[in-house]
Write a structure and sequence with these properties.
Length: about 575
């Protein structure tokens, strides 16, 4: 599916949006819990010496936390996305920006969306003698706006002067707001819910009409047999002369009655098809006309057994009916309605290691406060990501999870280049190996097939595509307290690999085989982001003895500026970060 993950927005993996929910690129807002945690950290952490640039600024860098020291970072993040860079969307160019819910917008909600409409469509075509009849439950319009609010807490601890370890725990609230509109004028659908589904009296009325057809056929058959045996009887000359037409009437009317039973129900208490023509539509009018014609033909043979009228048609579907359509397993989906959902919980947890290879500043922390010339610092690192987050639900077509719920191994390179007292830049490279696992998903044949029947929900083998990332963060240090930062980010994700074949029975009762490899489509993607940030720091003042508390507070904003490959969400994020330091042991 194109949403993720939603979809997999596969969240982005959009199809269903899952890889966006890591703490580094996760969401934003001053939540009450985030501010409370920040205040608690400030209250608990006592002053400590901290080796650093005068102002670190936004983003990561090659610095390691000094031996025996701890750095606590608390973030308030708000990630939002309402659009995506689409692919293979009818009527749009690849890479064009389009609404996030575009795959749910249908002028005709028909067989392509609900496969169990096919039998009803074929039956109505035959019953109404309309070979071009198209089954439609109506028109849908869906607007999706996703917001992910996150408060990650990161703790870095210096093991030696060159080695530090870290843990990042994100607390996530993922909200998908869905504006779902269905049949705004009430004139869009050709089919609706069969009244027999909720009205036993309608079943009885339909049964009476079918009984009248049976009685008419039986009476005419009796007349034909009697006149064949006694041609001289009154009225038999005319009947025998039209015996062929009479037998054709019995046959065609019987087929019509069988069609009535199949579509509208009533035979032996059957409810018939879940969907029948809407009152006043061309199909219902045609069926009414055919019923009147059969009644008149029987009357022409002196047979007035048929007295009933056309079975009760459906009312146009409403938004409430659409919710029933999604949730009631009778109609095939057995899913949750398209509505606002909120998922709260812990996201995927990062456990990291950073090793500083060299630093031309040497080991004197104060040397960093008065840099001159060209300086270079290089570190490498690794992160193990624990899949503690939750993915979007298989039976919810628009929700957003709190993470990938899948383990990763990530290798990192950190390069800091400094020139003079004011300018320095960090160049970060990450390569993420996403580890294989299992996941329950609904297997669709194409990404645009966003509504998948319940029988398509299976446990598949999942191996998300590996990810390469490049981040460049130039910084201009204005003085010992303030800096301004730029941000460029590039992400390249390879295609996912889903495996598993399943022999199942579709909604028509036919055996079919579904292949999970269909989920691999449109999962390869690239993304570019640009951002800017500002920082205020007391680190330099603290090291000079002019401040009693070493901390740094930063604001950062970025936006996705270009996406291609799969359906890449157009992200916008704001972030506020507070860093505090504490010396635990050592000098």
């Amino acid at each position: 599916m194109k949403l993720a993950a939603r979809a997999a927005l596969r969240l982005p993996d959009f199809t269903r949006l899952r890889t966006l929910l890591r703490w580094r690129s996760a969401p934003v807002l001053f939540t009450r819990s985030g501010l409370a945690v920040s205040a608690l950290c400030i209250a608990l952490l006592a002053p400590a010496r901290a080796g650093a640039q005068a102002v670190l600024g936004i983003g990561d860098d090659a610095l390691t936390v000094p031996a025996g020291s701890m750095r606590v970072s608390v973030f308030a993040q708000w990630l939002r996305y309402y659009e995506r860079y689409g692919r293979a969307t009818p009527g749009r160019k690849n890479g064009a920006v389009e609404p996030l819910g575009v795959d749910f917008n249908f002028d005709t909600v028909g067989v392509a969306q609900f496969e169990n409409l096919a039998p009803a469509q074929n039956a109505v075509r035959a019953l109404a003698a309309m070979p071009d009849f198209t089954a439609s439950l109506g028109k849908s319009s869906v607007l999706i706006r996703d917001n992910v609010l996150t408060t990650p807490i990161a703790i870095d601890f210096g093991i030696t002067r060159r080695i530090s370890v870290s843990v990042v725990v994100p607390f996530v609230t993922a909200t998908s707001t869905v504006d779902f509109r269905f049949n705004p004028t009430g004139r869009e659908p050709t089919l609706g819910f069969n009244p027999t589904l909720s009205s036993p009296s309608t079943i009885a009325a339909n049964g009476d009409l079918l009984t009248q057809f049976d009685a008419a056929a039986a009476q005419l058959n009796t007349q034909l047999a009697s006149c064949a045996a006694n041609p001289a009887a009154a009225g038999c000359a005319a009947l025998n002369a039209n015996a062929g037409s009479a037998r054709a009437l019995i046959q065609s009317a019987g087929a019509f009655a069988a069609g009535l039973a199949q579509v509208y129900g009533g035979r032996a208490g059957s409810v018939g098809s879940p969907f029948v023509p809407v009152v006043g539509t061309a199909a219902q009018t045609a069926i009414k006309a055919r019923l009147a014609a059969f009644k008149a033909q029987y009357a022409g043979f002196g047979n007035n057994a048929i007295t009933g009228s056309v079975p009760l048609g459906a009312a146009p579907m409403t938004i409430s009916d659409a919710a029933t359509l999604f949730t009631d397993k009778t109609f095939g989906l057995g899913a949750r309605p398209l509505e606002r959902t909120i998922n709260r919980g812990i996201g995927d947890i990062d456990v990291g290691l950073k090793v500083k290879l060299f630093d031309t500043f040497g080991e004197d922390p104060k040397a960093r406060l008065a840099p001159h010339g060209l300086q270079w610092r290089q570190s490498i690192g690794a992160v193990y990501r624990i899949g503690t987050g939750t993915t979007d639900a298989a039976d919810n077509f628009a929700d957003v999870g709190t993470g990938n719920h899948q383990n990763d191994v990530e290798l990192r390179s950190y390069t800091d280049l400094m020139y003079g007292k004011h300018f320095w830049v960090s160049v970060l490279a990450h390569f993420n190996f996403q580890l294989a696992d299992q996941l329950t998903m609904r297997i669709t044949d194409t990404p645009s097939q966003v509504l998948a029947a319940a029988y398509r929900q299976q446990t598949v083998q999942r191996d998300l595509g590996d990810v390469a990332e490049l981040e460049i963060d130039p910084r201009w240090v204005m003085n010992d307290y303030m800096s301004i930062s730029g941000h460029y980010y590039y992400r390249r994700k390879s295609a996912d690999r889903y495996t598993g074949t399943f022999n199942v029975t579709n909604l028509a009762g036919q055996p079919v085989t579904i292949d999970a490899s269909a989920l691999n489509q449109e999962t390869e993607a690239t993304e570019h982001r640009l951002g800017v940030g500002f920082s205020y720091s007391t680190l330099a003042a603290y090291m000079r003895g002019k401040a009693g508390l070493p901390f740094e507070i930063s604001y950062f904003h970025f936006q996705t500026t270009l996406g291609s490959g799969g359906n890449v969400p157009k992200l916008s994020q704001d972030q506020v970060q507070v860093r505090m330091y504490r010396k635990l042991f050592g000098r």
